[in-house]
Design brief:
Layout lengths: L6 E4 L5 H14 L4 E5 L13 H8 L2 E2 L19 H5 L1 H6 L5 H17 L3 H10 L14 H10 L6 H8 L12
Parallel strand pairs: 1-2, 2-3
Length: 179
C-alpha cells in the first residue's frame, strides 16, 4: 500500500470509527492516504450526517455519495410501482416503503419541484449538491434526461427555508448498507 496512488473507500460496509482507524493506520505506517469516501446518502437516508460526514470534513476527505435519488424514490409519487421497485431486492432493503416520514420527504420534494417548475430529480440533486461536505454525487444516469437533470441541479439554488422544508420530515433510520 505504499503506492503513490490515491485511494478511495466505499463505505457501504464501514462505520465512521472504522474509517477513523483506517486513516490512523495509513498515517502510522506511511501508507497512501485515503482521499475520498463513497457512501450512501440522500434525503431518505441521512444517517451519515451523524459521524461520517463530520469525519470526512475534518480530515478533508472528498465525499462521493451513491444513490442521491434513493434509487428513484425521490423522483416519483410515493405509491408509484415500477419494474425496479418490484425487482430491486437491495433497494427494497435500503428503503422500506412503509416509513411514513419517507413519504413526507418525497411529498416535500414534489411540492418544491412544482413551485419551482422543475423535475423532482433536480430538487433532490440540488439539495445534495448544496451540502458543504459533498464533493459530487454518483448520479447513475441511464437516460439522457438524467444527465440534463444533474447538470440543471447545479444551478438550482435552494433557499434555506426550502432546505428546512425538505429535511423537516426526516426521522432517524436503522443503519443500512453497512452489512
Amino acid at each position: 500500500m505504499k503506492s503513490g496512488k490515491a485511494r478511495y473507500l466505499g463505505a457501504s460496509s464501514m462505520y465512521a470509527w472504522q474509517f477513523s482507524k483506517a486513516l490512523h493506520l495509513a498515517r502510522q505506517h506511511g501508507w497512501t492516504a485515503f482521499v475520498s469516501m463513497q457512501n450512501h446518502y440522500n434525503l431518505l437516508y441521512r444517517e451519515e450526517e451523524r459521524e461520517m460526514m463530520p469525519l470526512c470534513a475534518a480530515e478533508r476527505i472528498a465525499v462521493v455519495p451513491w444513490s442521491p435519488l434513493a434509487r428513484g424514490r425521490l423522483t416519483r409519487a410515493w405509491d408509484t410501482e415500477t419494474a425496479r421497485t418490484q425487482t430491486d431486492v437491495y433497494g427494497n432493503k435500503l428503503y422500506v416503503a412503509t416509513v411514513d416520514a419517507d413519504r413526507k420527504v418525497v411529498e416535500q420534494v414534489a411540492t418544491i419541484a412544482a413551485a419551482r417548475g422543475v423535475p423532482k430529480a433536480q430538487v433532490a440533486l440540488a439539495w445534495i449538491a448544496q451540502k458543504p461536505f459533498v464533493t459530487a454525487p454518483i448520479i447513475g444516469a441511464s437516460k439522457p434526461q438524467h444527465l440534463d437533470d444533474a447538470v440543471a441541479a447545479l444551478t438550482l439554488k435552494l433557499e434555506a427555508a426550502e432546505i428546512a422544508q425538505l429535511e423537516a420530515p426526516y426521522v432517524p433510520h436503522t443503519v443500512a448498507g453497512h452489512t
